[in-house]
Specification:
49% of the residues lie in helices and 15% in strands. The protein is of the alpha/beta class. It has a single domain, classed as P-loop containing nucleotide triphosphate hydrolases (Rossmann fold), CATH 3.40.50. The longest helix is centred in the middle third of the chain and has 20 residues. It is globular.
């Protein structure tokens, strides 16, 4: 979108519960031009620490997302991110019943323009880092409630993987 010769940057986040197709959709969308892509950092971080994670590890992951968004904002880049601070907030609250103020403050200061929330209507896939095979619907509803509470635009992404890609591309082309 152009405004007086200046390209308007957008922040789009793919979110949802575990094993809902977020990373698959993210990888598929990387073929689109005009976006900077911020991959999921949690998996990389957890593999690197080689131990069970703790509450404060989630803060380290949050710092990564904040720094990536600052860089994109400074460079006026449109961004598609595989998860963000909202996912970390939900993760903290669900697992630890509390959340780092840094996460909540930065989510309010620099919210995304749009969430693509992946429905958990695809089969669960085992992964040693996944913890909630039976709580996906509950976590999906928590995501929806939090997004609505924040007042951020969202689109529900559902169906099989090819339908999700088609749906997401249409949404992004209409921004």
């Amino acid at each position: 979108m152009e405004k007086k010769g200046i390209k308007e940057s957008r922040k789009i986040v793919i979110t949802g519960p575990e094993s809902s197709g977020k990373t698959t959709l993210f990888e598929q969308l990387k073929t689109l031009s005009g976006f900077n892509f911020i991959p999921e950092y949690s998996r990389t971080y957890l593999e690197k620490i080689k131990r069970p994670y703790h509450y404060n590890d989630i803060l380290q992951i949050a710092n990564y997302y904040v720094n990536e968004l600052k860089s994109a904002n400074q460079n006026k880049l449109s961004v598609i991110s595989d998860t963000d601070l909202l996912t970390l907030q939900i993760w903290c609250e669900f697992k630890y019943k509390k959340c780092h103020p840094f996460i909540m403050e930065n989510l309010k200061i620099n919210p995304p323009d749009l969430y693509l929330i992946c429905s958990p209507n695809i089969p669960w896939e085992f992964d040693p880092q996944r913890e909630n095979p039976h709580d996906r619907t509950e976590l999906y509803n928590i995501h929806l409630d939090k997004i609505k509470e924040l007042g951020i635009s969202f689109e529900i992404i559902e169906g099989d993987l090819s339908k999700r890609l088609i749906q997401s591309k249409k949404i992004l082309q209409n921004l």
